[in-house]
Please model this.
Amino acid sequence: MPIRLIQSLAVFGKALLDNPREVGAACPSSPQLARRIARLVARQPGGHVLELGAGTGAITHALLSAGVEPERLLPVERSARLTEHLRKRFPQLNVIHGDARFLPDVTASLPRKARQGITHVVSSLPLRSLPPQDVDQIMDGVRSVLGTEGLFIQYTYAIGGGTASAKGLHWCGRAVVWLNLPPARVDVFALEPQTAAAFARRASAPAKHGHAEAEWALSARDVSC
Ligand SMILES: C[S@@+](CC[C@H](N)C(=O)[O-])C[C@H]1O[C@@H](n2cnc3c(N)ncnc32)[C@H](O)[C@@H]1O
Model:
């Protein structure tokens, strides 16, 4: 087992013991789940990416590998232990030790370009296990920091059921990733209905520009892989 994976599992296990409800998962995200999310984000170059609950950095790593430049990536993590791990693992990133319930405060210290140019919020937060008032507060914050054409990407282990919802956001599409422990479902939401409609149009069009588009074409029709 690679040393990096052992370190991640060890620090994740300790964070889980510190605060099981906030961590909300038995282990870090798989490379397959991380890559699925990262490829979607990397399709839209230029904007800043706020990553909520970055944990051990599995998705952070995939975002960087998919071509998101370090200066565009802003991981936010509440656990001091995991923040320290992230800062060691990604010295090139501005890892924010902060609480997603207070996003306007968390982003207040960022340069204006970053604050006003957030095109994606990627969330690993365990929204199903957090108290409902915390979830409301987090979603209010997401809406307030996300740019008008921005996307909110959230995964859940509740892979069945109907269309997911996120307070005040418009659902765009979903994908199921079986190669994760447990399998996960990724849902994509937009702030504006026009952005959601454009996402669905792009995703259901025949693939023209390669792998990523084809992949989300399937996902938007709820075909799993
Ligand atoms: C499911 S785990 C993250 C998994 C991550 N993708 C990985 O591979 O390690 C959820 C993370 O959200 C963090 N978290 C929970 N509540 C938070 C909050 N209010 N603000 C910021 N981070 C939070 C937890 O500390 C934990 O690291």
